[in-house]
TrEMBL record:
PROSITE patterns: RCK_C. Signal peptide: none annotated. This is Cation:proton antiporter regulatory subunit. It holds the Pfam family TrkA_C. InterPro entries: AAE_transporter, KhtT, KhtT-like_N, RCK_C, RCK_C_sf. Coiled coil: none annotated. Residues 73-159 form the RCK C-terminal domain.
Length: 160
């Protein structure tokens, strides 16, 4: 999908793309840290209709909700062709013994056989994270392995 970036002097940036209905969807990232979602109807591409506004924290939450499942879904599509291989998500919750520690400390692959292939952190995706990557509370780990292996990674991260 083609995403266009437009500089809005004094305001911030607008990211936009066309949806399947022919409307243009815009995300205005304001310099203040707030975001506004707007829609330009295909019938009048010059008039934006505001949909809603988000604070920076709200935008981070929405990005996490939308981002993590989509990444896991893509890996799930890839694993359907390999019997016994699954994709899953594991959240690093507040109080996890591995929050603010490097990924290597989990020894997840050695202990479970499952691999952490990405970390979704707010709107960022860290693909193929290095063992030195620090885990943070709120991270969502994308894990590939057997169902048992993914459950094992979840138990490790939860401190069980």
């Amino acid at each position: 999908m083609d995403v266009r970036e437009i500089l809005l002097p004094g305001v911030g940036l607008r990211y936009e793309f066309d949806n399947q209905d022919g409307d243009r969807i815009g995300v205005i990232a304001r310099r203040t840290g707030e975001f506004e979602i707007v829609v330009y109807a295909g019938s009048d591409p010059d008039e934006a209709r505001p949909v809603f506004r988000l604070t920076g924290d709200e935008a981070d939450t929405l990005a996490q909700i939308l981002g993590a499942p989509r990444i896991a879904e893509r890996f799930a599509d890839l694993t359907r062709e390999v019997p016994g291989l699954n994709a899953g998500q594991v959240s690093v919750r507040a109080g996890s013994p591995f929050a603010d520690r490097p990924l290597a400390d989990t020894r997840a692959r050695t202990r479970t056989g499952a691999s952490i292939v990405a970390i979704v952190r707010t709107e960022d995706v860290i693909a193929s994270p290095s063992p030195a990557e620090m885990l943070r509370s709120g991270d969502v780990l994308v894990v590939i392995g057997t169902a048992e292996g993914i459950s094992g990674v979840e138990r490790i991260i939860d401190g069980d």
